[in-house]
Design a protein that fits this description.
With about 525 residues, the chain is an alpha+beta fold. The protein contains twelve helices and 22 strands. Strands 11, 14, 15, 16, 17, 18, 19, 20, 21 and 22 form a ten-stranded antiparallel sheet that branches. It has a five-stranded antiparallel sheet with strand order 1-2-3-4-5. A hairpin with a 5-residue loop joins strand 3 and strand 4. The protein starts with a helix and ends with a helix.
């Protein structure tokens, strides 16, 4: 600030204060304080700067604007008190040689006269230093920018648009890259940037903080450390686990009914997947059927759902038939779903659905010379040679579509397992009791017995797997991996089921009433 500007400012302040009866004392104290700051404790300004850096390093940008003014006030009051305690007389900081008549100073300012002869240059410099410090704080502002990314924006050009040089912006880009890929920033995403700016000159003085939220519950923060270097850190919120229950009646489709009950889409998809090898959701679900579910959500401290967790219990009431499954993790870390008795919910079809598991393959899948027709044709299944009367099992849960004589297949059964898979069984000697079209069967349930009906040269099971309407090789489908629980694992599982029923007694009490009513 030029000297003329300084005195113009001083004159303006003087006009406000000249009616103050304590003006002379105020001026003496001001000069004493100014001299104390510059001469008695020359490093006061450095102390202020160090305090500024400390506050920025120790407090998040959210609290800086509150802490910093208080810090400045404390430092100034401390210096002022020290100036008085170090000087018994408020004018002690002004040497006898430099003592002046303050009335002359007032007159010189009012009359635009030179003050060099009546007011020492050292005192002018003292006051100017303090005035410039205060004036600096008036024009320096902390500004929080909320920047919504547009198509084509890059991390570097966002910084350069704020007034930062390319080299510094690129260094910050490299810092960010250590914890987060800047190229993952997308249009519509919001970045929060805190800067210190000279509003009078419209100039960027420093970049204090950058906050990016890659996803809910995570924040990337860039700020300077004690060495005045930019560092980036990835902060993950401590998530709160929430256990929810839901149940309802299906009047349209299952997804809509579950959404209406407040179940998240991802949980709905997992629920459908659990039953996908047992239920055809397009054909098996009827109006009036019911669902029940116990599932987990993970929330941020402010209540936002960050991710969905496990389904602990899932149940479908299809007419009078109810399928209820409980999640269990064994000592090896394997997770599967089991019914209340510990029987596994097998999600894949059996390759060899026979009681006689050592049965040999008498004819594989593919082209072959037909033993009766005496010509090469495609064999659309696998033949298992087995003694007549051997029990044949349903390869998976499903609904019987056909159970009757079917030409060259002889006694024939077809089961629809879901919208993707069906299986077929030929040349049976007879069907099991109660097996007919529309009957729901469980995986491993006896549906018939090995025979040699139709075009057959001996007792065997002709087994087909149909995937999306196309017959595929049964030997290439995955074998059932689930195993029933037993021993200590079964005991632990049953204790887990009992605890789940205890903590969600209202849901299970309602289910038990329905179960009794259906008997």
């Amino acid at each position: 600030m030029k000297q003329n500007e300084f005195f113009n400012r001083a004159k303006e302040l003087w006009s406000r204060l000249k009616d103050n009866p304590n003006l002379r004392k105020a001026l003496k104290i001001w000069d004493s304080f100014a001299a104390y700051v510059k001469n008695g404790y020359a490093k006061f300004a450095k102390l202020v700067r160090n305090a500024h850096v400390y506050i920025k390093s120790k407090f998040s940008y959210k609290y800086r604007n509150k802490v910093m003014p208080v810090g400045y006030a404390i430092l100034i009051v401390l210096a002022f008190v020290l100036s008085l305690t170090k000087n018994n007389d408020v004018s002690a900081s002004v040497t006898p040689k430099n003592k002046i008549d303050y009335i002359l100073l007032e007159n010189s300012i009012n009359n635009n006269l030179s003050t060099e002869d009546i007011y020492p240059q050292s005192s002018i410099d003292n006051i100017r230093s303090l005035f410039e410090m205060v004036n600096y704080q008036e024009t320096t502002k902390t500004i929080e920018h909320e920047i919504k990314l547009s198509k084509g924006d890059t991390f570097i050009n966002i910084l350069t648009n704020l007034g930062m040089g390319y080299k510094e912006a690129h260094n910050i880009y490299l810092t960010l890259k250590k914890v987060y890929k800047p190229e993952n920033l997308k249009a519509g995403q919001v970045i929060f940037i805190t800067t210190t700016e000279d509003t009078a000159k419209n100039q960027l003085l420093s970049l204090d903080n950058i906050t990016i939220s890659p996803k809910i519950g995570q924040r990337v923060i860039i700020e300077k450390n004690d060495k005045n270097e930019y560092v980036a850190s990835l902060i993950k919120d401590d998530l709160i686990e929430e256990v929810n229950t839901a149940s309802g009646t299906i009047n349209g489709n299952l997804s809509s009914a579950m959404n209406k009950a407040g179940v998240p889409n991802k949980i709905v998809a997992n629920f459908i997947n659990i039953f996908s090898y047992s239920v055809d959701f397009k054909r098996d679900i009827k109006k009036g059927d019911k669902f029940e579910i116990i599932y987990e959500n993970y929330l941020t401290p402010d209540g936002k759902v960050v991710k969905t967790g496990n389904i602990e219990y899932a149940a479908l009431q299809l007419g009078k038939h109810k399928v209820a499954l409980y999640r269990y993790k064994d000592k090896s870390g394997n997770v599967d779903y089991f019914d209340e008795k510990g029987y596994a919910m097998k999600k894949t079809l059996h390759r060899k659905p026979l009681a006689f598991q050592s049965a040999r393959i008498s004819s594989p899948f593919g082209k072959r010379r037909h033993p009766i027709k005496k010509k090469i044709i495609v064999h659309w299944g696998v033949d298992y040679a087995a003694p007549k009367g051997t029990a044949i099992y349903a390869a998976g849960d499903g609904v019987v579509q056909m159970a009757k004589w079917n030409g060259g297949y002889g006694n024939y059964i077809k089961i629809r397992h879901n919208s993707e898979y069906s299986t077929a069984y030929g040349h049976m000697s007879r069907f099991a009791k109660g097996i007919r079209a529309g009957k729901r069967v469980k995986q491993g349930q006896v549906i018939g017995y090995v025979g040699s009906t139709g075009l057959s040269t001996g007792p065997h099971l002709h087994y087909e797997v149909v995937k999306n309407g196309r017959r595929v090789n049964p030997l290439k489908i995955k074998a059932a991996a689930g195993e029933n629980l037993a021993g200590k694992e079964l005991k632990k599982f049953k204790a887990q089921v009992a605890e789940l029923k205890r903590t969600h007694s209202s849901m299970f009490a309602k289910s038990d009433k329905q179960k009794v009513a259906s008997k």
